[in-house]
């Protein structure tokens, strides 16, 4: 009996590992141009870094953001209990359905992240100390806002600007959520960079899964609180 339970548990773990692996590889496949440009960072000098960064910034709205939205569309199904979906066809469907909104999101968040990078030199490099703390807090909020935008984009059918605004409110209004998202994803990135063979196989799918899980719980809680208000007013 114990051997059967052990084999059953091993099978379930293996299935989930395969799901994360396959989804991450599909995501990387859709990001091949950016991956190829990013590989040049390893041998680039300071002058080339600027060119490579600008190249990725130009490509991101058209490649990275639609692919990442599709990735979030897949993990959304898993979090909501539909784990037996066909991964590639679901990814492709989410990619097509959300391409325009994701591209627009890439433009908006691309400009925000470029501003973040430019201000690093002004606020942190030239003024260390308190600026580092403030800049780190801003970075955490910006990261959470970005992953919540992906989550909001695939979870709710609302106008584009509404998804940008509401995901920002959700990130700023829930500081513990920001800490949770950053800490969990930070651990995943640390493990993936320490065990470098894991990085290309799991980093995207696992971070998307955990980020959407945080978002989904907050969204469910917010919906419950909103629906409870009329009842409380009647009482």
Describe this structure in words.
The chain is mostly helical. 86% of the residues lie in helices and 0% in strands. The protein has 10 helices and no strands. The protein has helices at 2-30, 32-39, 46-59, 64-79, 87-97, 99-125, 130-155, 160-173, 175-194, 199-234. The longest helix has 36 residues, at 199-234. Mean pLDDT is 83; it is low at 230-235.
What fraction of residues sit in β-strands?
Answer: under 5%
Count every helix, treating DSSP H or I runs of 4 or more residues as helices: 10
Structural class: mainly alpha
Biggest sheet record: none
The overall average pLDDT, rounded, is 83
β-strand number:
0
- Low-confidence stretches are 230-235
Distance between the termini: 53 Å
**Looking at the structure, what is the overall shape?**
globular
Taken in chain order, the helices and strands follow as: HHHHHHHHHH
- Global Rg: 19 Å
> Percentage of helical residues?
over 70%
Could you give a quick summary of the protein structure above?
This protein is mainly alpha-helical and about 240 residues long.
Question: What is the element layout, followed by pairings?
Answer:
Elements: H1 2-30, H2 32-39, H3 46-59, H4 64-79, H5 87-97, H6 99-125, H7 130-155, H8 160-173, H9 175-194, H10 199-234
Task: Throw out a few tags for this protein.
single chain, 235 residues, 0% strand
């Amino acid at each position: 009996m114990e051997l059967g339970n052990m084999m059953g548990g091993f099978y379930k773990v293996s299935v989930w590992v395969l799901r994360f692996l396959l989804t991450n590889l599909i995501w990387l496949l859709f990001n091949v141009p950016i991956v190829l440009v990013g590989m040049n960072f390893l041998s680039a000098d300071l002058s080339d870094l600027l060119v490579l960064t600008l190249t990725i910034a130009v490509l991101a709205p058209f490649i990275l953001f639609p692919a990442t939205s599709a990735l979030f569309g897949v993990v959304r199904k898993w979090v909501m209990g539909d784990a037996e979906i066909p991964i590639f066809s679901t990814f492709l469907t989410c990619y097509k359905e959300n391409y325009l909104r994701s591209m627009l999101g890439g433009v908006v968040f691309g400009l925000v992240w470029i501003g973040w990078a430019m201000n690093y030199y002004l606020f942190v490099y030239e003024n260390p100390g308190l600026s580092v703390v403030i800049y780190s807090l801003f970075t955490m909020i910006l990261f959470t806002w970005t992953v919540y935008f992906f989550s909001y984009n695939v979870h709710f059918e609302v106008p584009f600007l509404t998804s940008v605004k509401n995901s920002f409110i959700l990130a700023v209004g829930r500081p513990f959520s920001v800490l949770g998202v950053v800490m969990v994803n930070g651990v995943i990135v640390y493990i993936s960079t320490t065990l470098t063979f894991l990085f290309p196989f799991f980093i995207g799918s696992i971070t998307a899964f955990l980020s959407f899980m945080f978002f989904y719980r907050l969204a469910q809680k917010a919906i419950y609180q909103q629906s409870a208000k009329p009842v409380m007013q009647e009482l």
